[in-house]
Amino acid sequence: MNIDRIDLNLLKVFVAVYREKSLSRASEKLFVTTPAVSQNIKKLKESLGEELFVLSGRKFVPTPYSDALYQRVFPLLDGLASALEEGRQFEPSNIKESFRVDLNPHILPWLTPALLKGLIEQSSKSTLVTHSISPSTLRALCDDEIDIAIHFETDKLPSEIVALPLTRLPFVLAMREEHWLDKTEISLDELSELLIAHIDLAYWDPTKRSRLEDKMKNLGKPIQVAMRTTSVMGLLDTVATTDLVAPCFAPVAKSYHGNLKQVHIPDVEDIGAWSCSSLSIARIWSPLSTSGLFL
Predict the structure, then answer these.
(1) Whether residues 123 and 199 fall in one domain
(2) Residue 43 lies in a domain
(3) Cα–Cα distance between 272 and 267 in angstroms, integer?
(4) Residue 238 pLDDT grade (very low, low, confident, very high; cuts 50, 70, 90)
(5) 243: which DSSP letter?
(6) Is-above-0.85 flag for pTM?
(7) Domain count, the chain
(8) Where in the sequence is the domain holding 187, given as residue range(s)?
């Protein structure tokens, strides 16, 4: 599409209508008349060749196309507005805030120190608050009660949440250095013979099982889960002193201060980690993807 055909002012009106779900309320936000808002939405619809809203009762309900458009347009407009601000420079050292982050339990133990180190170096007056992800995390993101969530799942996210890819993490088996298994790689058939210590996913969904369990089940292979826990450190302490092995990510095993070795599972693909945040702060957190914290 030729960018000359799109008036950026129309996108500004679109964002207002999308958020307010009402032409009249959008007009109040924009300090223009309701007919003017209606006309601008009509122009944008004609330019894009797509239906943007449908009237349901007294609300303008966005179409799936609008949901996708909003997720892409709002961060850009927000970033443009910030770039055009005059006489103001972002100085992290002057900020005194609490940065609230929910993290997947597999990520929390090793990423928290790295985040804190960066915060102390760049914004020493601020505070880092980290918690394990929970069923209330998505609601808290939407309500701006937390700033960011870092997790492995991005399906079924509400339209007001933006997910940015951070990295892909290698999946390994962590075990004590003296474990009888003397290999650097293991097959799924061999995995069936081992006793597994697993992170309990009840923190996210009590009915959910891990990707490894699902994969073994789909292949018709047994898996012997001898222990479940929500504590990653408890998990690692257990495998460090027993013959249980723990499926985890390489940085998790590396973060343990005892002697653990890692055995790779070639049949299990690496898993992507994503940062999830509300649209209004997605631009602020996007540099995290290139910060080197995950390398």
Answers:
(1) no
(2) yes
(3) 16
(4) very high
(5) S
(6) no
(7) 3
(8) 171-269
